[in-house]
Amino acid sequence: MAADLSQIVKAYDVRGVVPDQWDERTAELFGAAFVRVTDAGAVVVGHDMRPSSPGLAAAFARGAAALGADVTMIGLCSTDQLYFASGRFGLPGAMFTASHNPAQYNGIKMCRAGAAPVGQDSGLADIRALVEEWTGGGAPAPAATPGTVTERETLDDYAAHLLSLVDLSAMRPLKVVVDAGNGMGGHTVPTVLRSLPVTLVPMYFELDGTFPNHEANPLDPANLVDLQARVREEGADLGLAFDGDADRCFVVDENGAGVSPSAITALVARRELARHPGGTVIHNLITSWSVPEVVREHGGNPVRTRVGHSFIKEEMARTGAVFGGEHSAHYYFRDFWNADTGMLAALHVLAALGSQPEPLSALVAEYDRYAASGEINSEVADQAARSAAVREAYAGRDGVTTDDLDGLTVTTADWWFNLRASNTEPLLRLNVEARDEPTMARIRDEVLALVRGA
To answer: What keywords were assigned to this record (predicted)?
Structure first.
């Protein structure tokens, strides 16, 4: 293996093709480096259902144990189940998953004790440097006393913890279709929902890291088509779709229409503020205007941040926020160690729907106040030049304000848009929202013409 890991060590995790870009030997070195950088005496390790995941997780455990750390292997789990174990046991953790990426990929999501994130600025760069050094120059010296490797089951405790955080006592019977996409939702959902008055209609619950039915990426509308059709066929109350490692959850209403993650963020924020009056709620800058509006209406303090889980988690910790949401359907809870868990957000949706008689479409209408474009990607040769052209076109217009918190955000009384450069691809990502559909479409088309040089 090459000693340059720049292609697989990303901003927040490790991710690449197995075995072309990394293999079990590399995973073993990551285990050793993780222990060295975190100075951990013990770690917890879990993995998803990809064919390469058990071997990579075992190799990581060998590397960690060789440097003296005791390793608790929790086996098959969702990413938020690994975060639960890290929080409950007070241990640094490593989750082997490539989330929604295709089958040939795998990766590692790492955290410190209490599910605190490990990113480029919080240890990942140091871990990468050690692995590169050892790949090129030999393995680290083992500890005088190696650590132990033991197995532990956590699924029941994980489910019990989630259920303790939501009042489901008044919930009426619901029919729920769940598309697990052959990912880890097929492992966690039956246990979490088994005690609830839910008729569960499972789709693609077989754990299969080759993803034979569709990609486990509900952010792509094409991957929701099967769920939407099944909800309508079954006359179900709602549908839930999880990504490959089941840390994100997307919601479909009784008509098969997708519910905006911004609307889910607003709904959950309202419920968390009822539990924690006056609390702070974090939202990233491409969530709907409705999110800070709902937070203020219910006595909370909205805080706007950059896109990305490390920024959300940093702000959660800094402000003591009770909840955070992103338009990518990542939902973060103070009562879950500030970590993201799609399953807990899903339980809030079930509780909100089940405690009143209206259908989901009516329930979320209150939170779906504006017309949105969704994220539109454009491939460009020069991201900076295209962004500058857009800035020049709008800056200085009457009633226009701009900010650079994350890319370029342009705001007026009637609409806003954000244009951000991808960190890994030659793309510009556009999100537009307006008070009505014609205005949104006009601004969207104006900006895209500037971006694409039309």
So the answer is: Isomerase, Magnesium, Metal-binding, Phosphoprotein
The Cα–Cα gap between 149 and 304 comes to 42
Which CATH topology does 170-255 take?
Answer: Alpha-D-Glucose-1,6-Bisphosphate; Chain A, domain 3 (3.40.120)
Print pLDDT tens along the chain (454 aa).
446 899 999 888 999 999 999 999 999 999 999 999 999 999 999 999 999 999 999 999 999 999 999 999 999 999 999 999 999 999 999 999 999 899 999 999 999 999 999 988 899 999 999 999 999 888 899 999 999 999 999 999 999 999 999 999 999 999 999 999 999 999 999 999 999 999 999 999 999 999 999 999 998 999 999 999 999 999 999 999 999 999 999 999 999 999 999 999 999 999 999 999 999 999 999 999 999 999 999 999 999 999 888 789 889 999 999 999 998 899 999 999 999 999 999 999 999 999 999 999 999 999 999 999 999 999 999 999 999 999 999 988 999 999 999 999 999 999 999 999 987 778 999 999 999 999 999 999 999 999 998 5
CA 421 to chain centre: 19
Catalytic residue among 99, 260, 288, 387: 99
CA angle 78, 331, 292 (to 5 degrees): 175
Give CATH superfamily name and number for 261-365.
Answer: Alpha-D-Glucose-1,6-Bisphosphate, subunit A, domain 3 (3.40.120.10)
What is the architecture, at CATH level 2, of domain 371-452?
Answer: 2-Layer Sandwich (3.30)
In angstroms, how far apart are the furthest CA atoms of the chain? 70
Among this protein's residues, is 422 annotated catalytic?
Answer: no
- Using the CB atoms, write b or e for 87-105: b if 16+ within 10 Å: bbbebbbbbbbbbbbebbb
- Rg of the chain in Å (alpha carbons): 22
Residue with the two structure tokens 């680290």: 140
